[in-house]
Amino acid sequence: MSLPIAPGHPVPDASLIAKTRPDFPMTGSGTDRTRPAVQAAAPIVILVEPQLAENIGMCARAMANFGLSEMRLVAPRDGWPSGGGLKKGATAAASGATHILENARLFASAAEAVADLNHVLATTARERGQMKRVLTPAEAMPEVAGRVGGGERVGILFGRERIGLTNEEISLADAILTFPVNPAFASLNLAQAVLLNGYEWFKTTGGEPPFRENNPSPPAKREMILSMFDYLESELDLCGFFPPGKKPVMTANLRDILHRLDMTEQEARTLRGVFKSLVEGPKKARLLARQAGEPEQSED
């Protein structure tokens, strides 16, 4: 297939440069432009004859989510960037990951796209009868991380949306990547396949979630918990909650339930306040009703 641009040539787009400035707000809930982007070496994503510009954009977004930055395109159906490839939805679908689209490299064939790589993986959902190792992304990424860490260049081939990779293209790879999916419905969207591989890569290489739980209150001390137990049990005793002879067992069960909450000091204070309101609230309501001359409501 003849293409108007030399294989491996970067495809710049001046209109995108402003949108990749550090001070330009990236769209998407949870994106924090004040934090540095992941820039470590990573596998190269190779999309073979992608059919939809929107899918290319969504793949770029998935890559950016998990620290993958290099995209290679093999003969996109709508051209790149000629034929409206960038204009017909790719940029919008990338949701800010335009730096990946801007630096995408174009190749005429899968063989050319992998020529400079040391190790290649091919994704497929179908058994191809080839004598290759078959790995899930979780199984493959530790080895990939070792190779990348040792200076090798590793690429992952992703096929066409409708028919995937050909057997000839898969023959270019060292191993096959496939996903543990429902065999009755194994087909994945192109961006989903990129996302799952990116997730396993990021997890394998020590990726951390952008935030953890934030609870400034320290764990509750035992004396605070026991005081709450004493208060609750005494009030339950007053209202006749415990049947004769059952109090020791029921008290132990209640304490076990509350212990499993593993409360902080703030949580213990809040829970005790709830118990106190349940006890004293009706008394206060009756007092206010008497003061206002209103009929008191029955508790039944």
Quick one: CATH class of the largest domain? Alpha Beta
Total count of strands: 8
Q: How far apart, in Å, are the first and last alpha carbons?
A: 84 Å
Q: What number is the mean pLDDT? A: 83
- The domain count comes to 2
CATH superfamily of the largest domain: SPOUT methyltransferase, trefoil knot domain
Figure out the total of helices: 11
Shape: elongated
Low-confidence stretches: 1-27
- Which structural class do the helices and strands define? alpha/beta
Radius of gyration, whole Å: 30 Å
Q: How would you characterize the largest beta sheet?
A: 8 strands, mixed
Which CATH architecture of the largest domain is right?
3-Layer(aba) Sandwich
What is the H-and-E element order?
EHEHEHHEHEEHEHEHHHH
Helix content: 40-55%
Q: Which range does the strand content fall in? A: 5-15%
> Strand order of the main beta sheet, please?
1-4-3-2-7-5-8-6
Give a short synopsis of this structure:
The chain has 300 residues and is of the alpha/beta class. The protein has helices at residues 14-17, 53-65, 86-94, 98-102, 110-113, 137-149, 167-170, 190-204, 222-238, 247-259, 265-292; strands at 9-10, 44-48, 71-74, 105-107, 119-123, 133-135, 154-158, 175-177. An eight-stranded mixed β-sheet has the order 1-4-3-2-7-5-8-6.
Can you walk through the features of this model?
The protein has helices at residues 14-17, 53-65, 86-94, 98-102, 110-113, 137-149, 167-170, 190-204, 222-238, 247-259, 265-292, and strands spanning 9-10, 44-48, 71-74, 105-107, 119-123, 133-135, 154-158, 175-177. It is elongated and about 85 Å long. With 300 residues, the protein is of the alpha/beta class. Helices cover 42% and strands 10% of the residues. The chain is built from 11 helices and 8 strands. It starts with 8 loop residues before the first strand and ends in an 8-residue tail after the last helix. The chain has an 8-stranded mixed sheet with strand order 1-4-3-2-7-5-8-6. The protein folds into 2 domains: 9-24 and 38-204, 3-Layer(aba) Sandwich (Alpha/beta knot), CATH 3.40.1280; 222-292, no CATH class. One of its GO terms (molecular function) is RNA methyltransferase activity. Residues 44-196 form the tRNA/rRNA methyltransferase SpoU type domain. It holds the Pfam family SpoU_methylase.
